[in-house]
Structure to design on (568 residues):
């Protein structure tokens, strides 16, 4: 046990997915594929002082107090009501980077260390995945963030139920973001067409698991699922006119690409790498 | 496709294990736990020139030509007879660091890139795991090396059959090594007592998955399985007298510990970290 611990969790962009809701949150999730990013979230957990404790424990994101139900869910599952959670990230919230999943998973790792909870990594991932599913803020980010690389979700759910694979590459990643798309709204609507398109993209990626194919299938998925925003549509058209390829982050008004595809099309993107490792403690 | 590609695979020390031989090498393997090391193996694959091709493709380790059946097995499974394999590592061969497994897995990653084989990461891990099992040189290093961190093998076998977990910590690692112990000899003998001790250690680690517990259970396992060498026995006694703990690498005449336990006991160990990521390409 320790007074304070910090975990790093990579951001995660989903390129395509199918939704698989289930009564049991550990069995619920998504199939699909995406990219774990070297841009991520640092989550520090400490014991709240007596004076700080109100009805709700404190959660901050980049210094601002935020309501973050997946973090509250992790506190409850780990039995750590006094965990004060401070998160720092360069990634925008609600724009398809898995910030809520990262905060949940980072809280699980760091709170496990501070409060001596003795969970294994699978236990921590399960707690964060279930809290994210129950909050309705995501279905597949947490398991992707736990794995790192270019994660493929073969079967939905937390460790023990889900199954993961990966595209064997660690490309440079570029992205531009214009704002939010409501994950809750899409996931709570009719997901039949989306799921059919997502299943087809997954089968095609498994035939040929390369980064180029991941982007091309993600672009096709967003069009088939009718999720592409006007601004992302316009970026993708520019990138393709310049000889490259780009796709939309699920779910945000965000375009992503590998290599220099966005730069080559004249954009000034944020640049990072596919994160090779999954999540973990950085200090305790 | 590319002319040459390089992969990095972490070393892997097993602390305790149970052996689970099966007819199908993808289902064979071990349960147990260990440490993926930041000290590892860089494996470069290139197309052999016409002039180089003999009956056997070339494999080198630190510049010396070596016979490495698990690498030959990967060449066969990937259908890349012309893959020349050059490996570099600071780790000694045959001393419990998973060098043969690392060479197999690194060959799979790099050859997949050079020869455009289009396997997923699970496919690459499966090829290397099966080649290692068939060569009789290891049962669990490859899946541990693919995962990184402090891997726990919950169920034996390649992805799709096996199941992994991890201890949520990334400690500093110290080790001293005195030479070889034959993995083939131990694995081909009666493994009943060993497997009983390994299963018990696994159950106890799952109760409390911490680095300290991993070392203590590994120490107990080596004693119960009657595998502790005289030199490792003496190192462990010194470390415990100094207030620390250490255990033996399975299978090598090697002692390992976390933090500064070996230094504190007056040894001059090699020092590295638990490797946070699994294996992957570093250049192509």
């Amino acid at each position: 046990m320790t007074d304070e611990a910090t975990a790093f969790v990579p951001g995660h962009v989903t390129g395509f997915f199918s939704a698989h809701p289930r009564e049991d949150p550990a069995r619920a999730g998504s199939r699909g594929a995406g990219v774990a990013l070297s841009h991520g979230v640092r989550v520090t957990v400490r014991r709240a002082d007596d004076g700080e404790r109100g009805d709700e424990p404190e959660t901050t994101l980049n210094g601002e107090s935020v309501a973050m139900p997946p973090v509250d869910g992790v506190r409850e599952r780990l039995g750590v009501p006094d965990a004060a959670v401070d998160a720092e990230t360069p990634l925008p919230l609600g724009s398809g980077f898995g910030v809520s999943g990262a905060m949940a998973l980072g809280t699980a790792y760091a709170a496990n260390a501070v409060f001596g909870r003795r969970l294994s990594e699978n236990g921590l991932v399960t707690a964060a995945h279930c809290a994210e599913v129950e909050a309705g803020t995501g279905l597949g980010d947490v398991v992707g963030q736990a794995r790192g690389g270019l994660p493929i979700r073969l079967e939905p759910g937390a460790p023990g139920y889900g199954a993961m694979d990966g595209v064997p590459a660690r490309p440079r990643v570029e992205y531009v973001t214009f704002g939010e798309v409501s994950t809750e709204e899409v996931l709570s609507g009719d997901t039949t067409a989306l799921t059919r398109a997502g299943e087809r993209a997954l089968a095609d990626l498994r035939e040929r698991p390369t980064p180029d194919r991941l982007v091309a299938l993600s672009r096709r998925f967003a069009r088939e699922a009718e999720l592409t925003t006007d601004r992302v549509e316009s970026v993708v058209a520019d990138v393709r006119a310049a000889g490259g390829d780009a796709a939309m982050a699920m779910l945000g008004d965000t375009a992503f690409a590998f290599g220099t595809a966005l730069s080559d099309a004249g954009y000034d993107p944020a640049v990072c790498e596919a994160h090779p490792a999954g999540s973990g403690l950085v200090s305790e």
